[in-house]
């Protein structure tokens, strides 16, 4: 079975007008294999697979990643140390957080080893038709009229810089499942799919490590199915994601 990168290459070449025989010869695969994937309509994984042994830190990893990402915007002395992350997790999650300090320390060391000291990637500032930006925001809402308790909810915002338009979808979180569901609903609402979509690094669809982009498998299948080009903002270049941030209320 081919991986999603190989399948995406086949689908892209077919969409560009290459014949099945030419694709097979170029990618060194059987014609039947090419035909199977270029005409396949559903790339959803048929059955969920069990992952390896889970860490008790797994539910808190997105939070840690978000905190460390925010550190890039503050002074060095204000950034999170492993000790500060551990203390903050204890303070904010109480009895739900049961990990040891060494577990937190090892994970932060791993993240910092994967993160380059300085990113050199840039994105063009001129926005073209068919380009969208995707980001998450947080809103305070009341569940019903007269309710005095404020609830914080997440919302996915898809903005179109060229036309100065934006649409929203509300969700309980920022997972890849929320992103895929929200984008599908918005694509159906506008009656089309943008050719290029720029994502904020905290949207849950994957992550960018230097020049390497690793997508969640669910989003990879969604991207191949709809045939759009996806990329991440440069985390150290705020001007690249300014338009999407302005669309967040």
TrEMBL record:
Provide the Integrase catalytic domain boundaries: 112-249
**What are the protein's GO molecular function terms?**
DNA binding
The answer to whether the entry has keyword DNA-binding is yes
Does the record carry Signal as a key word? no
One GO BP annotation of this record: transposition
List the keywords (alphabetical): DNA recombination, DNA-binding, Transposition
Q: Which InterPro entries match?
A: Homeodomain-like_sf (IPR009057), HTH_IS21_transposase_type (IPR017894), Integrase_cat-core (IPR001584)
Which superkingdom heads the taxonomic lineage of this protein's source? Bacteria
- What region holds the HTH IS21-type domain? 5-68
The family note in this entry says: Belongs to the transposase IS21/IS408/IS1162 family.
Q: What is this protein called?
A: Integrase catalytic region
| Species of provenance | Sulfobacillus acidophilus (strain ATCC 700253 / DSM 10332 / NAL)
Taxonomic classification: Bacteria, Bacillati, Bacillota, Clostridia, Eubacteriales
């Amino acid at each position: 079975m081919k991986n999603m990168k190989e399948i995406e290459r086949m689908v892209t070449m077919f969409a560009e007008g290459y014949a099945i025989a030419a694709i097979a010869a170029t990618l060194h695969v059987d014609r039947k294999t090419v035909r199977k994937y270029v005409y396949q309509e559903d790339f959803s994984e048929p059955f969920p697979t069990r992952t390896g042994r889970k860490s008790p830190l797994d539910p808190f990893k997105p939070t840690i990643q978000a905190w460390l990402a925010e550190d890039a915007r503050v002074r060095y002395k204000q950034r999170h140390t492993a000790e500060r992350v551990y203390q903050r997790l204890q303070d904010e999650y109480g009895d739900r957080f049961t990990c040891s300090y060494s577990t937190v320390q090892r994970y932060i060391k791993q993240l910092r080893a994967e993160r380059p000291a300085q990113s050199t990637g840039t994105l063009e500032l001129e926005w073209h038709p068919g380009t969208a930006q995707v980001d998450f925001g947080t809103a305070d809402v009341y569940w019903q009229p007269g309710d005095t308790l404020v609830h914080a909810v997440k919302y996915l915002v898809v903005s179109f810089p060229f036309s100065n338009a934006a649409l929203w979808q509300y969700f309980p979180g920022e997972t890849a499942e929320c992103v895929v569901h929200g984008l599908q609903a918005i694509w159906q609402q506008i009656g089309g799919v943008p050719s290029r979509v720029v994502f904020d690094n905290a949207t849950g669809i994957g992550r960018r490590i230097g020049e390497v982009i690793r997508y969640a498998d669910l989003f990879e299948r969604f991207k191949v199915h709809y045939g759009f080009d996806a990329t991440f903002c440069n985390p150290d270049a705020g001007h690249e994601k300014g338009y999407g941030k302005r669309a967040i209320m």
